[in-house]
Amino acid sequence: MGQVEATTERIVAGKPEDVFDALADYRETRPRLLPHHFSEYEVREGGDGEGTVVHWKLQATSKRVRDCLLEVSEPTDGQLVEKDRNSSMVTTWTVTPAGEGRSRVVVTSVWNGAGGIGGFFERTFAPKGLGRIYDELLEKLAAEVAAQGSE
What we know:
Number of strands: 7
Shape: globular
Helix content: 25-40%
Largest sheet: 7 strands, antiparallel
Low-confidence stretches: none
Strand order of the largest sheet: 1-7-6-5-4-3-2
Number of helices: 3
Radius of gyration: 15 Å
Structural class: alpha+beta
Distance between the termini: 49 Å
Mean pLDDT: 90
């Protein structure tokens, strides 16, 4: 059994605080950012960053569905951490300045993978699949922040 890690990043046109606020808004903005891989989305506590508890199902492949109950914390400025109460998965969103009016958003998920041959396939393919899902989410985030900036 080894740790599996998936990381995706994107430069987004928008001030870091605006980008972070969009990510931390689990009530209004976050549901609009989620690709079709997410279902049964529900905010159970809070809804804005620290202290939020949110549920969703993540269908990474046609056969693999993960039931997630996430507890959100903000350990440092510009960072959201989502810890899944149902598994070892921890997803960290980090937003930093990337030049004038731009932000770098990095999302990293880590979890304890399976052992044996299944673990080999998980370590080989899961990061790529999750990366594609998060890339789609970051694309929607960029469009959302651009739309909010033009209002």
